[in-house]
Amino acid sequence: MPEGAEQDKAILIREYITMKARILVVDDDEALAEMIGIVLRNDGFEPVFCADGAQALDIFRSSRPDLVLLDLMLPGVDGIEVCRQIRGESDVPIVMLTAKSDTSDVVRGLESGADDYVPKPFKPAELVARVRARLRPGDQKAPETLRIADITIDVAGHTVSRGSDRISLTPLEFDLLVALARKPWQVFTRELLLEQVWGYRHAADTRLVNVHVQRLRSKIEQDPEAPEVVLTVRGVGYKAGA
Amino acid sequence: MVSATKQGPEPAAQDGAPGSGAPAPAGKSAAGHPGGSGLPPGPEHTAAVSARLRDLMFRAHLWQRRALIVSLRVARLVRTGFRRFLPALRFIGRSLHRRWRRSLQFRTVLTTLLLAVTSFAVVGAYLSNQIANNLFQERLAQAESETSYHVKQVQDTFDGAQVTDQASVITLVYDTLNAVEGRGSVIQRRYVFEAMPEQTKPRNRWVESRASDQLTVSVIPPELRKAVQESGKDQYWASTVIPVGTEDRPGIAVGNKVTFNGTVYELYLIYDLNTAQQTLDEIQSVLWAGGAVLVLLIGAVAWYVTRNVVSPVSHAAMVSEKLAAGQLQERMVVRGEDEVARLGASFNHMAASLQEQITQLATLSQMQQRFVSDVSHELRTPLTTVRMAAEVLYDARHDFDPINKRSAELLYNQVERFQSLLSDLLEISRFDAGVAVLDAEAEDILQVVAHAIEGAAPVAAEYGSEIVLRAPEGAVIVEMDARRIDRIMRNLILNAVEHGEGKPVTVTVAASQTAVGIAVRDHGIGMAPAEAARVFDRFWRADPARARTTGGSGLGLSIAMEDTKLHNGWLQAWGKKGSGANFRLTLPLRQGEEIDKSPVQLEPEDIVMPGEPGNSNMLVLGTGAAAGTVPAQEERT
């Protein structure tokens, strides 16, 4: 596992340097996939395509993408299931492409492990901005240990633990937790969190924050119904627990 | 206990009179008199009388005190008992009252019982009165005829008597009178034989009066005696009470006069009504028993009948409650072919057709929902491709010749417009399908408003309008779906900017304890009251001839209204030609609460000028309020 992680990191750094991030586009609509390919290539990414949900995992394994663009509605295995499969073996950023902007669909997508979503019809610039935001390399992480409640965060080592138990978080959840832990005195609005964690200047959908906070709580809180680590400040947003 | 404590001084005051130790009050007072009367008469007589009087007064006083104490105790006992049982009585009364109100069966049975008891009481009283009367009349007729016969017998015997000495006279009279009593062991009638007062007493009047056993002349009512004495030889009767053995019995006394040896006697024959009374008592007890049984039977019948009628009705009520609660498969049990069964059958028929219609509607709604979802997906995917392609072309337009360049621009703009139209249409159809849900959370509405103003700033700058925000300090926390409120605010502000003719647009926010009001005011061309009422209609345009300048779909305000209804809020419009328009959004601070008054005015304060008729404005306010509140109520029901 450490060796694999090292390898992953090495590849990520290399590709970041060469600016040729590989992006897996899972979409059954050939025209749209091609168009997305044109846009991505135009912006210096390397797209890989997959038109079938059933093959998505195989192609993911063989192509080792840096980011996955995933359509929610796919023939064969549906987008939510594909998302769950990929999340099961990798922390790679997943951005959903959704034609439905109903809350339930968006929330379902995010809960299955996606980091972000882009509702159709999107603009090329919007898509690229989201891709870039998710590919942005983490801040230079100095050796730093943060604590919220009974949770210990090793920022450089990218690990979170309660006592001797390690808690596994996705990079996005980790970033969210670190952002809150670094300024325990500050109350973060959802917009501020979107900006700091997701990297959006202009507020996208604050539901993103809600869903990810809930997912984070389900992993780190002892009782997600009575949170102690990530507290809700009614009418404002969230803050770290004492 | 009372008598024990009060008895101490008694013997001293009683002068050692006998019977002072008698414990029973009755015995004591009874014993007092013989004791007193037993005193020897003579010179000490007056002293003894006064002593007796003192004694009596003392005793009276004593007994008065005792009676007072006993009555107080009894009163207290009754009061505490009443107080103790009062809650229970009250509870019983209340539960009876509740049953009376809630149970038709209870009410019917109780009413029937009351009516039955009343009618039996009336009929029973009449019957027993009639019977008693008849029995009495019969006995009276018999008594009168028997009396006249026996009086004649006695008179005849007396007239034919040839006795002169005292002994034989007495024997004759006694024998004659004893013969009147009747033969055999049973006494058929009794007599009272009395010499009439105030007549000259002949020498040989050896018999003054004579009566059957236990009787004296006092049993004869004075009125009867007077009537007999004053008449000639007429016969009179009266009701009386006679002692027989140890009991008093009702009787009829019939009187007349007989003469013997020159003396006029009153002769009363007294007939015992006991047998008639017994018959009457028996008849009455039969009436009582029969009445009670009949009342109970009628009660039972009423209970049975109402149960038969009411139980299907209450069953129907239960089933219809279940139906109303959404258990559409619920049906009534139908037995037989009577009216109740018909009710059940038609009820079930109604339920079935209701279920069918509701299921059909639900299916339709589901189909619509599915359709919207499908159209959404199917249209959006190609639209995304077209949009991306258009943007790529648009970005590269500088490399094109003028014709291609313009085409790329047109393509890009119209795809944008098409996209916004499509998303508005889908949004509206989502409302129509009833799938729009409120994702409410407590957030600061000032931030949302500020955000919407910020978003509209580029468009406002294009029109040269300034957007002014007038809001309270701090935060206004509202339970709302921020995404929808943001959309409403954007729609209202863009609408104001579009119609504001470059004049400033004011956004006013104010909050009360229960509600928050946001007014968006422009000073542009304005609109007539009739237009203000229609402004939320779909695709409605104030002036069809006027060119649509921004690429609005014509659905923006309709969507805003739907979003508002989802929040149980009000969205109202005010307008006046040449004075601009004002749109007011009012939301409850907490979902599920009612708004009674908006914290901001719909009619702008700056518009009410002195001397200007305010009626038209008031009219608009009314229309706006109706447009805002009525649909909100529909939403809730």
From TrEMBL, chain A:
Modified residues (4-aspartylphosphate): 71
GO molecular function list: DNA binding
Response regulatory domain segment(s): 22-135
Domain of life: Bacteria
Feature: DNA-binding region: 143-242
Domain OmpR/PhoB-type: 143-242
Pfam families (UniProt xref): Response_reg, Trans_reg_C
CDD domains: REC_OmpR_MtrA-like, trans_reg_C
Sorted UniProt keywords: DNA-binding, Phosphoprotein, Transcription, Transcription regulation, Two-component regulatory system
NCBIfam families, sorted: MtrAB_MtrA
Entry protein name: DNA-binding response regulator MtrA
UniProtKB/TrEMBL annotation, chain B:
Localization: Cell membrane
Compositionally biased intervals (Low complexity): 11-32
EC number in record: 2.7.13.3
Main location: membrane
Domain of life: Bacteria
Official protein name in the record: Sensor histidine kinase MtrB
Recorded GO MF terms: kinase activity
Organism: Pseudarthrobacter polychromogenes
The keyword Repeat appears for this protein: no
Keyword Transferase part of the UniProt annotation: yes
Residue ranges of domain HAMP in the record: 307-359
Domain Histidine kinase span(s) in chain numbering: 374-591
Transmembrane segment boundaries: 104-127
Catalytic function, reaction form: ATP + protein L-histidine = ADP + protein N-phospho-L-histidine
Keywords carried by this UniProt record: Kinase, Membrane, Phosphoprotein, Transferase, Transmembrane, Transmembrane helix, Two-component regulatory system
Enzyme class per UniProt: transferase
Region (Disordered): 1-46
One Pfam short name: HATPase_c
PANTHER family in UniProt: HISTIDINE KINASE 1 (PTHR43711:SF1), TWO-COMPONENT HISTIDINE KINASE (PTHR43711)
